[in-house]
Write a structure and sequence with these properties.
heterodimer; A: 150 residues; alpha+beta; Sufe protein. Chain: A; 3-stranded antiparallel beta sheet; B: 410 residues; alpha/beta; Aspartate Aminotransferase, domain 1; Aspartate Aminotransferase, domain 2; 2 domains; 7-stranded mixed beta sheet; globular; binds pyridoxal-5'-phosphate
Chain lengths: 150, 410
């Protein structure tokens, strides 16, 4: 874990790997999936993220579309981290992720491979790319919660 | 031959760059840098009395009004038009919206056709799409050759007697090809269509002759031709402008009105210029045109063409670069690095002190023609240098995916 946290070479390899071989890169035809289409206003990233929540658990999450290295790799990592987690666990992961992007102290045990992005917050012009997947996941969780309340 | 070293002394920002403070600027199609004379003209307006125009009771206003009118005459001369055919707007975008709302909306009938290109800028296409949906007119696209080049034969075949408006950019902001605009105007007129030209990327870089070309409308922006932001120009043939209604009403454009709503507008072009204009920008544009004419538009074109040729030559020796417009004559170079998203390449260049643009360059519908959603665009201006071009090539020679990621997460 300490290697992950501190070695920029490993960070680069994690991002390269998730960009070139993204995990959960597919979309579902199943109408019971939630869906978030994220088109960034900087006009490059155009990703769709889909999620199925059953009994408070994320039973599937996947994505597809066109994105830069940062948006593709971060979305790949975050889908991997949240897949199979309870909604509350996923919310905690995303909250930690945003804390890290804000350049505040974060829990590397929770973020695992996502720690590769620990310095991206220093580049204001890449923050949108790094949070596009996080935003989509949160948006769908909120949509589900809102729906269940009614 | 332009003396680039001397020219760079005329631009305060380039003097800084030569001292290594700022990077290499290759986003000139987005907007250009401004020479000291333009900055001085703007500053003089503010420091020597920022009064309104056309308040002739006092000397300063009279003098500023004269300078303002002289700037209009200068713009007219620069593009070979009459001063009464020059309308000041807030930018090329506003000019094209004015054509759409003030002209096209009034004349188009259901099933009339607007003929355009898939490579057009959003500022041209979106106003046209709206006017089409309001009037029941249709948009048709002149098929581009694979790779995005224009084909005069395809244009001839696309013209027919329902075509009422041909709307094209003289130079595309994505690919930099120059259209045969005089020939296109002649053909448009032969079917009774009006041709409106987006000159945002051509007027700053080529000689413009609206009269010789016989085009009906021309839109362009001050800030892309060394002038201030917030100012654009709409040229229109006097007869067409006379027949148009302004989109905006208000002070400055009316001759008189009364409480019952009886309104008499001023004549062309004043009827289109309601409200206080960007006075300092107009004065700055006047200085910008002086600067451009001092160098000569032919010399500017030659200089940019030579820089572009050098960049294409260098990039074509790199196997990992895909060039989309090697044969386009203007200073726009559009490319990708194999296996690396355009945005990452642009950020990498930025980390190496080179400013370029990545994305679809506001021409979203072009994707189907060049088969790539996003590209990197380096756009040159006459004040760029061969050394700057060589630096870009050097940086790109060694670019890798890993290096791009490294600069992002460092
Ligand atoms: C071809 C073309 N048309 C229109 C525009 C719009 O110009 P402006 O943003 O100055 O209104 C641009 C500038 O981006 C352009 O490149």
């Amino acid at each position: 874990m300490n290697d992950y946290l501190n070695d920029p070479r490993i960070h680069r390899e994690i991002i390269m790997d998730h960009y070139q071989h993204p995990h959960n890169r597919r979309l579902s035809e199943d109408p019971s999936y939630l869906k978030a289409h994220m088109a960034s206003e900087s006009c490059i990233d155009d990703l769709t993220v889909m999620m199925k929540i059953e009994n408070g658990k994320i039973v599937d999450v996947c994505f597809d579309g066109v994105g830069c290295t940062v948006s593709t790799a971060s979305t790949s990592i975050l889908t991997t981290l949240t897949l199979g987690k309870s909604v509350d666990e996923a919310k905690a992961i995303i909250a930690q992720y945003y804390t890290m992007i804000d350049l505040k102290p974060f829990d590397g045990e929770v973020l695992q491979e996502a720690v590769a992005f620990q310095n991206v917050g220093k580049q204001a012009n890449r923050i949108n790319c790094a949070t596009i997947g996080a935003k989509a996941i949160l948006q769908m969780i909120h949509e589900k919660e809102h729906h269940d309340e009614k | 031959m332009l003396d680039t070293a001397r020219i760079r002394q005329d631009f305060p920002v380039l003097r800084k760059t030569d001292c290594g403070e700022l990077g290499i600027y290759f986003d000139n199609a987005a907007t250009t840098y401004k020479p000291q004379t333009v900055i001085d003209a703007v500053m003089a307006y503010y420091t020597e009395g920022s009064v309104n125009i056309h308040r002739g009771e006092y000397d300063r206003s009279f003098a500023i009004s004269e300078a303002y009118d002289a700037a209009r005459a200068k713009v007219a001369r620069f593009i070979h038009a009459d001063p009464h055919e020059i309308i000041f707007t807030s930018g090329a975008t506003a000019s094209m919206n004015l054509i759409a709302m003030g002209y096209a909306e009034a004349v188009l009938q259901p099933d009339d056709v607007i003929l355009t290109l898939e490579s057009e800028h959003a500022s041209s296409l979106l106003p046209l799409m709206r006017v089409a949906s309001k009037t029941g007119a249709r948009i048709e696209y002149i098929p581009l050759l694979d790779g995005g080049r224009f084909d005069l034969e395809a244009y001839k075949n696309a013209l027919h007697d329902r075509v009422k408006l041909v709307a094209v950019a003289h130079v595309s902001n994505v690919l930099g090809y120059i259209l045969p605009i005089a020939e296109m105007a002649r053909l448009a007129h032969s079917v009774g269509a009006v041709i409106c030209v987006d000159g945002a990327q051509s007027v700053p870089h080529l000689k413009t002759d609206v009269t010789g070309w016989d085009i009906d409308f021309l839109s362009f922006s001050s800030h892309k031709m060394l002038g201030p932001t917030g100012l654009g120009i709409l040229y229109g043939k006097k007869a067409l402008l006379d027949q148009m209604d302004p989109v905006l009403l208000g002070g400055g454009s009316n001759a008189r009105f009364d409480r019952t709503g009886q309104l008499v507008l001023k004549g062309t072009p004043y009827k289109f210029e309601s409200g206080t204009p960007a006075i300092e920008a107009v004065l700055g544009l006047s200085a910008a045109i002086d600067y451009l004419e001092g160098l000569g538009m032919d010399a500017i074109y030659e200089a940019e063409h030579a820089l572009k040729a050098r960049m294409v030559q260098g990039l074509s020796t790199l196997d990992h670069i895909v060039l989309y417009n090697a044969d386009a004559p203007t200073g726009i170079v559009t490319f990708n690095v194999k296996g690396i998203p355009a945005q990452d390449v642009a950020f990498y260049l930025n980390a190496n002190g080179i400013m370029v643009r990545s994305g679809n360059h506001c021409a979203k519908v072009l994707v189907d023609v060049i088969h790539t959603p996003d590209t990197v665009r380096a756009s040159l201006a006459f004040y760029n240098t061969p050394a700057e071009v060589d630096r870009l090539i050097d940086v790109l020679r060694s670019v890798t995916l890993e290096a791009c990621i490294a600069v992002t997460i460092a």
